[in-house]
Specification:
It is a single chain. The chain has 583 residues and is mainly beta. The strands form twelve sheets. Strands 4, 8, 9, 10, 11 and 13 form a six-stranded antiparallel sheet that branches. Strands 26-25-29-23-21-33 form a six-stranded mixed sheet, with no helix packed on it. Strands 27-28-24-31-32 form a five-stranded antiparallel sheet, with no helix packed on it. It contains one helix and 44 strands. The protein folds into four domains: 129 residues, Jelly Rolls; 151 residues, Jelly Rolls; 131 residues, ntegrin, alpha v. Chain A, domain 3 (Immunoglobulin-like), CATH 2.60.40; 111 residues, Sandwich (Immunoglobulin-like), CATH 2.60.40. The chain is globular, with a radius of gyration of 31 Å.
Length: 583
């Protein structure tokens, strides 16, 4: 997703906060319906191809992670190798020269299920070791190590003797197995007691003096559960009409270090195609209390069909247990359909711009009507006007750092195109998704569809041009300011943008008196390209100077110097401004 940032902040008319209070948990409503799933054993209710590593029979009607005793736990692990002696070599680009053979030093080849992709250890590497991070605590009961092809074609090249060490902490490992005379091309170490560990280390104890030791695969098996699994439902077409999806609730039990996430996609066709929404951003729960509170998922609506997906995770020995999923939805819609687009779609970078956000809304006699529009943005913007089919209408505006909220005194129930004009500055492109709210069902906003264009979504904005400087559009306001504690102009806001910086560099803001003595460091921190605009006391990202020095004492009235600096590769860029302190 492309991003934009606002580079200034202006207070506008404030809409009553009660209308925009945080969405409550769903309450009873005349048209709120519940779709509940409590039996996951029905194979017709799931997508068999996309469901993996979960067990639907161990607990009646519930979902738990699959047992780990048949899955190679090494497939999800991270491997690294440490050579004690020479490293493998291959012919270099210059005749009669050699270079390190990095292909044969890639320890991750030991988890690719390919017995012919190898790690090689030249003679003289007794004591070298391979570290395996399983990414989660596991109960290990057997380990396999294989030579080239697993065929035993060369006994001299297989590891002749080796040891395994294991532990929950990579710094506290205990020897769990030793093989003194390996005769097997694929050797399996059966542990007498399962070992609880996250880290496993293979140590080479013996090799021939003349041959390379070759290892093609290390496999690890254990008791307990796999680290993650997915349950994907079949596409459900039973709703019978396009609906506005509300909150989703998950009924689940959680063991230590487990979680469950849920996501959803919607559409009108019986099979998922390009008209369907993408999978919504997963919402993850770590406790039964969180899962029971419910959440809204960002999907296209109204739609008549849906599909959901559950991900189960564990980083310990237990498993979450999902016993049910519940969706709340409405057949009475806020609007029968909405389509949004923004103009212009391409604007100059870091220049003041005016954008028009248009929502074509269609209503029927059963529609609830539109009372509020919320347009999401990475930073605040200022709404300048609102019209319906070109005719100005009354509105109120609630600014926020990442959202424009526009309320209407009269509910909109007539099909029309609503144009919302706002101003901002852009540092790079972004999307502006929106939702509409009815006061008759404030708990369930309805997401707006973007108009589809040849290049993407119609609510996207791109930027053109490249800023010449690193520090852009530095502003000090108010100037003068009066830090006398009367609540008016008690601090000055330092607004600017950092541009043309990809990796973080040191950003500093310092205050000097006219003798050149530094009296205050406002900030010193790493920063990449970023806007720092707006009053931080009301959600902006600018910086304040309150007229005090580094000792916390108010400075004398007079002229002071504010210096902004970014330590970039060309020696640094500086911008100096003056500010007046008055009482």
């Amino acid at each position: 997703m492309r991003k934009i940032f606002y580079l200034f902040f202006v207070t506008s008319v404030i809409f009553p906060l009660s209308l925009y209070s945080q969405l409550p948990e769903v309450t009873s409503s005349s048209d709120s319906l519940v779709y509940s799933i409590t039996d996951f054993s029905d194979s017709t209710k799931r997508d068999i191809q996309q469901t993996a590593d979960v067990d639907l029979g161990a607990v009646p009607h519930a979902i738990v992670l699959a047992s780990g005793d048949t899955k190679n736990l090494a497939l999800d692990a991270r491997f690294s190798i440490t050579y004690i002696g020479p490293i493998p070599q291959t012919n270099g680009p210059i005749p009669n020269t050699t270079v390190p053979d990095t292909a044969k030093m890639n320890a991750n080849k030991l988890r690719d299920n390919n017995l012919f992709s190898i790690v090689s250890l030249p003679p003289g590497n007794v004591g070298s070791f391979i570290t395996i991070d399983l990414q989660a605590i596991r109960r290990i009961n057997r380990i396999q190590v294989a030579d080239l092809g697993g065929f035993g074609s060369s006994k001299k090249q297989r590891p002749l003797a080796f040891s395994y060490y294991a532990g929950v902490d990579s710094n506290s490992l205990t020897k769990i197995y030793q093989e003194l005379d390996n005769q097997d091309s694929i050797h399996t170490a059966y542990l007498s007691q399962p070992v609880i560990a996250r880290y496993l280390v293979f140590v080479l104890d013996k090799q021939t003096l003349t041959d390379y030791t070759v290892i093609s695969e290390i496999r690890i098996f254990g008791e307990g559960y796999v680290s993650e699994g997915t349950y994907t439902s079949a596409i459900d077409t039973s709703l019978g009409a396009a609906v506005n999806f509300g909150q989703v609730y998950v009924d689940a039990d959680f063991d230590n270090a487990t979680s469950v996430s849920i996501e959803m996609r919607t559409g009108n066709t019986p099979a998922a195609d390009t008209t369907w929404s993408a999978w919504s951003t997963p919402v993850e729960f770590f406790s039964a209390e969180e899962a029971e509170k419910g959440t809204l998922l960002d999907v296209k609506e109204p739609r008549r069909n849906f599909q959901y997906r559950l991900h189960l995770f564990t980083s310990d020995l237990g498993t979450p247990k999902v016993k049910g999923v519940k969706f709340v939805y409405q057949k009475n819609l806020i609007a029968d359909s909405t389509v949004a687009f923004i103009t212009p779609s391409d604007v100059p970078v870091l220049s003041p711009v005016t954008l028009k956000y248009s929502i074509a809304a269609y209503f029927s006699h059963s529609s609830l009507g539109l009372d509020t529009v919320k347009i999401r943005s990475p930073g605040p913007a200022v709404v300048r006007s609102v019209s319906s089919d070109g005719v100005p209408i009354s509105y109120t505006f609630l600014p926020a750092p990442d959202q424009m909220t526009i309320g209407f005194p009269q509910t909109i129930v007539t099909s029309s195109t609503i144009d919302i004009t706002f101003t901002t500055k852009l540092i790079e492109g972004a999307d502006f998704p929106a939702e509409i709210v009815s006061k008759n069902a404030s708990w369930n906003p309805q997401f707006v569809d973007p108009h589809r264009t040849a290049t993407g979504d119609g609510w996207s904005v791109t930027t053109n041009g490249v800023p010449e400087n690193v520090l852009v559009d530095v502003q000090i306001d108010p100037n003068p300011f009066t830090p006398n504690g009367d609540g008016k102009n008690d601090a000055t806001i330092i607004d600017f943008s950092v541009a043309n910086v990809e990796t973080p560099k040191t950003l500093s803001i310092s205050i000097y008196d006219l003798t050149g003595k530094k009296i205050r460091t406002v900030v010193s921190m790493p920063s990449a390209a970023n806007p720092y605009f707006g009053d931080p006391r009301s959600g902006g990202k600018g910086f304040l100077w309150d007229g005090r020095n580094d000792n916390g004492k108010l400075v004398l009235p007079g002229v002071y110097i504010i210096q902004l600096a970014v330590n970039v590769d060309n020696g640094g860029e500086f911008v100096t401004k003056t500010v007046v302190v008055a009482y």
